Amino acid sequence: MDRTIDYFYSKINYSITLNQDVANIIQSLNFPLIKASEATFVLDNFKAGDQVNERLLLNDYDVRLTKTNKEYLTLTFSNQNGMYRAKMWDNQGAIKQILPLLEKHRVFDLTATVDEYNQIKSLTVKKLEPVKQAIQPFTLLPFPNLDLKEIAEELIYYLTTINEPYRTLAIDTLNKFWDDFILAPAAKGYHHNYIGGLIKHTTGLMRFTYFIQHHEKGPLEALLYLITVVEKAYKQEVYIDAQKDKRERKRPVWQDTIDHLYSMLNQLTQLEQTTINFDLLYTAILYHDLGKLLEYDYAGKSYQAFEFLYPHADHTELGERAQGGIEMDALGSLVGHIPYGVMLLQQMLQVSAIPLTLSQIHQINHCILCHHGLPEWGAAVRSPEIKEGFLIHLVDYFDSRYENEEMAYYRS
């Protein structure tokens, strides 16, 4: 079966054939049944000052101090339509009363007022009541009604095109972590912050990579073309924004990106390396955010990845957790998804005995460690040192920023 890929402002356009290999792998995997949202609440549909009464899932909360040293709560809630920031003032000792409930419960009925600041809407909570009846929190996680099976078929297609031993490593990895991988978000707030976000983001990187790999004029010309697409999109953003009232303007998706893209491309071209190992690159893409299985927690997540990395540890504390909305994992955030990606790769290689050379293993590790591009952006090395390292950063950069425009389109 042929499928047309239409992505990145319709500038990435090609066909793939989903053959029997893809079908066989798909048949061996489980796909979760996610009910369509019954929630009608979308914060953007309300005006500042509106009163709302809604049932929402608690993601996380924090006690903070005002400039006058008075306590207040910051919270985030969600339903299938999105995530919502909120605050609650300490009126008549409200925080002391509500904290034990926040620790114990995850689904709440809340009464709140809509606020707006710099075109960003939030809620000021007046009242919180825990919902004690049996409700599956998973049904209140953000989910933009993606066809997860369709995305999985495309992802598996790319993995079936790579050569051994990378192909076996990639497929075995997917099988090992599938039940969490298919559901996991790729972020808490910035991009792909919803159920299925991780597999969508990973597939997005592979789309860019496939386009670069098969461009008729070669990888350099493909990258120059993609940067040109970004430039045109940025010009369009600036032009459209200029027509709006200042209060309606938002920061352009592609602001402050052009110089960085050209800088990274220029550094890539300075390398003496003559070929690109796309098999290695696809494998590294699969692993680049795999550590987010440990870095984030959410309702419905298993703790298989922790058990895989730490088989001899006492895992009692994991079973005592009250899972809710997408939040940083209390343990996972101590390490982060980038080191975890390397750790998961090493453990997979150890248990599967896949015959990669020492150089190949280090090159995949290097790609995982440098995919954020710059140390100040979270990269664990000073700078990429191989072309695959620059490429994984560039395709990650393209996809994460484009996601913000694509999701705005879906929401509209």
Summarize this structure briefly.
By secondary structure, this protein is an alpha+beta fold.
Largest sheet at a glance? 5 strands, mixed, barrel
In quaternary terms, these chains amount to single chain
Radius of gyration: 22 Å
Report how far the terminal alpha carbons are from each other: 31 Å
- Domains, number: 2
The SSE order reads EEHEEEHEEHHHHHHHEHHEHHH
The proportion of residues in beta strands is 15-25%
InterPro entries: YhaM_exoribonuc/phosphodiest (IPR050798)
GO molecular function: hydrolase activity
Protein name: 3'-5' exoribonuclease YhaM
Keywords: Hydrolase
Which tags fit this structure?
412 residues; alpha+beta; OB fold (Dihydrolipoamide Acetyltransferase, E2P); 5-stranded mixed beta barrel; 9 strands
Q: Could you give the topology of this structure?
A:
Elements: E1 2-7, E2 12-17, H1 20-27, E3 51-65, E4 71-79, E5 82-89, H2 94-104, E6 107-117, E7 120-130, H3 148-160, H4 166-181, H5 197-214, H6 219-242, H7 258-270, H8 278-288, H9 292-295, E8 296-297, H10 304-309, H11 316-319, E9 327-328, H12 337-352, H13 358-370, H14 387-411
Parallel strand pairs: 5-7
Antiparallel strand pairs: 1-2, 3-4, 3-6, 4-5, 6-7, 8-9
